[in-house]
Amino acid sequence: MNKSFTYILWSCVFIFWSCKTSTQHNSQSNHADATLSRIAFGSCSRHDLPQPLWSPILENKPQLWVWLGDNVYGDTEDMNVLKQKYDAQKKNHGYQKLTASVPVIGIWDDHDYGVNDGGMNYPKKKESQQLMLDFLGEPATSSRRKHEGAYGSYVYGSGKQQIKIILLDGRYFREGLQREDGRYIANETGSFLGEEQWNWLEKELTGSTAAIHIIACGVQFIPEEQRFEKWANFPRARKRFFDLLVKTKPAGVVLLSGDRHIGEVSRYQPEGMSYPIWEVTSSGLTHSSTNNTGEENKYRVGALVNQLNFGILTIDWTTPKPNVNIQIRGRENILYVNERFSF
User: Fold this and answer.
1) In whole angstroms, what is the distance from residue 16 CA to residue 147 CA?
2) For the residues of 62-120, what is the DSSP string, one character each?
3) What's the total number of domains in the chain?
4) Which residues form the PhoD-like phosphatase metallophosphatase domain (predicted)?
5) Residues 40, 325: Cα–Cα separation, whole Å
């Protein structure tokens, strides 16, 4: 059978399963029949700039696309304006090619939330949440529409080939930050996820049978030195997150983040964790921080990428333990970072 035809046929079947199972009322959408082995992801896409990366993304034949935030640059309290920007993104020819063959899920960050570096005080967060879920094609019955905050989870595959993707909302409940000399001051006691989301996350991790857990949030989990937004601006919340991983002991955690207009891979092993946690930051689908040539990150593995980029996560299920390959790629599918590991 022709390989292209096989891929198109498989994609159609996968979309059918996605549509059929995404109407569940519980905390997650379950795609038990679909083994997932190749995921593409990225963030920071201005609807009004050229979008040259959709073609190389499709060259990698992903089975799923995950938005990591700043999916459009809304920056408004006018929901008509925000909707127009989402509509413009959906009309992009390259993005339409992707959505015609690849299921899409995702979470927001600040600009698509509605305000730069915004948090819980953004007055249109309820309305904005529904517009983002409309953009993602979440059905009216989706549990993500029924609670405050845009968090949610998805399960793919079954048995020893099961993946759980957990999308965390780092905006809706996040308390404020103050800035001094261009750098955020740590909020030692502030809320980041909110108690309802924390409780939900613990339930998602406790007793999970998934072989791999992919946890995504708009802002970076692991890096500490950089002066912009990050989990480390809320040190108690960051510690609570890694302590929760140690407590619940989920198999095979990989973190995904965006926001920074750079790409990089970080690796960190919390005390009490039996294996290191890997994080892939992929940011800059339409614009990147080309002037960022030397930012410190003691956890970085490989190069800092300051060009347009997207991420690819591939899982080899044929090995005794799942073998994971994480890549950061760019224009013309150029490979910037390539790391392999197993759990």
Assistant:
1) 26
2) -SEEEE-S-SS----S-HHHHHHHHHHHHH-HHHHHHHHHS-EEE---HHHHTSTT--T
3) 1
4) 68-295
5) 12
pTM over 0.85: yes
By the 10 Å C-beta count (0-12 exposed, 13-18 middle, 19+ buried), 93 is classed as exposed
Structure-token match 């956890």, residue found:
299
Three-state secondary-structure class, residue 135: helix
Structure tokens of 342?
A: 């197993």
pLDDT in tens, 90-114: 999 999 999 999 999 999 999 999 9
Query: What is the domain-level CATH number for residue 93?
Result: 3.60.21.70
What are 42's strand-pairing partners? 67
- Tokens 């308390």 map to which residue? 175
| 303 in any annotated domain | yes
- Structural domain boundaries, residue 111: 3-10+29-342
The answer to whether residue 86 sits within a structural domain is: yes
